[in-house]
Amino acid sequence: MAVLIIFILLCLLSFLCYSLFFIKPKDSRDGRDLPPSPPSLPIIGHLHLILLSTLTHKSFQRLSSKYGPLLHLRIFHVPIVLASSASVAYDIFRDQDVNVSFRHSPPIEESLFLGSYSFISAPYGDYWKFMRKLMVTKILGPQALERSRRFREDELDRFYKTLLDKAIKKESVEIVEEAAKLNNNTICKMIMGRSCSEETGEAERIRGLVTESMALTKKIFLATIFHKPLKKLGISLFKKEIMSVSRKFDELLEKILVEHEEKMEEHHQGTDMMDVLLEAYRDENAEYKITRNHIKSMFVVSVFFFFFFYVGS
C-alpha cells in the first residue's frame, strides 16, 4: 500500500513538473519563422544567460552583441523576443504598437512601482495613452530637454570645478564617487528641480530604494513566469518587501510634492518633471484625471530607469 501511494505521488509530481516547465502556451508560434536563438538548457531555457550579470540589461547587451539585434529567448515555458537595435525596435512599435503595449493585470495593484499606478505596468487604456502623450510632448520632448539644459550645464561645471580644485591642491579625488554625484544631482534636478541632499542622507536614501527596487523587480519577474499556483505563491513571498519599499518612496515623495505645491502657490514657473505632472494633476479639463499616486509612481519609474541605465551602466 505504501509503495502504491509513493508511486501515485511520484506520478503527480512528474505531471506537475511537466505542466509547469514543458507545456507551451496555447498561442505558441510553432511553425512560424522565429528570430535566431542562443543555445538553451533543458527546462530553464536561457535563464542562465540572463542571470550572468546582476544588471539584466548588461546580460541582454552581451547576448545581442554575440547573436544579433533580434533574438528569440525562452525562460522555462515563456517565449521572449529581445530587440536591441533602435531600427528594429522602431519597426516593432510602428507595426505592433497595441500588441507591445498590452499588459496583463499588474502583480501587486497597490505598489507604486509594480502596481496599476505605474506607467510601465499599467494595462493599455486611457491612463496609459494619456501618460504616453504627456511623456512625448512635455516630459521627454525636445522642448523639455532644452529647458533642462541649464541643470545639466550647472552640474557639469560643478564637477569640473571639483576636479580642478583637487588638482590645484594636489589632493586625490575619487572619480567614481564624483561621477555618481554628477549623475545623481543631474537626475534629481531634471525630475524635481533640485539636487538630492548628501548632508541629510536624502541622496543615499533614494539610491538605496532604487537598489532594492532593482533586486525586487528581478525576483518578481522570475515569480510571474510560472503557471498558477506557483505564480501566486512567488508574488506573495515578495509582497511584503515590495510594499515596504513602496511606503518608503511614498513618504519621501509626499514631502517633495508638498514643496512643489508651495512653490506653485508662489507663482513659481517650474521646468522640471514634477511641475509638469502637478500641472496635469490640477488641470480639471485634462483627458485623464491623474492622482497623487500616479505622480509618485512616475517619479519612482523615472528615477529607477535613470539610475538603471546611467548609474548602473
TrEMBL record:
Signal peptide (UniProt feature, chain positions): 1-19
Gene Ontology molecular function terms on file: heme binding; iron ion binding; monooxygenase activity; oxidoreductase activity, acting on paired donors, with incorporation or reduction of molecular oxygen
Transmembrane spans: 295-312
Domain of life: Eukaryota
InterPro entries, sorted: Cyt_P450 (IPR001128), Cyt_P450_sf (IPR036396)
Cellular component GO terms held in the UniProt record: membrane
Keywords carried by this UniProt record: Heme, Iron, Membrane, Metal-binding, Monooxygenase, Oxidoreductase, Signal, Transmembrane, Transmembrane helix
Keyword Transmembrane among record annotations: yes
Compartment(s) of residence: Membrane
Required cofactor names: heme
UniProt similarity note: Belongs to the cytochrome P450 family.
Protein name: (thale cress) hypothetical protein
Annotated source species: Arabidopsis thaliana (Mouse-ear cress)
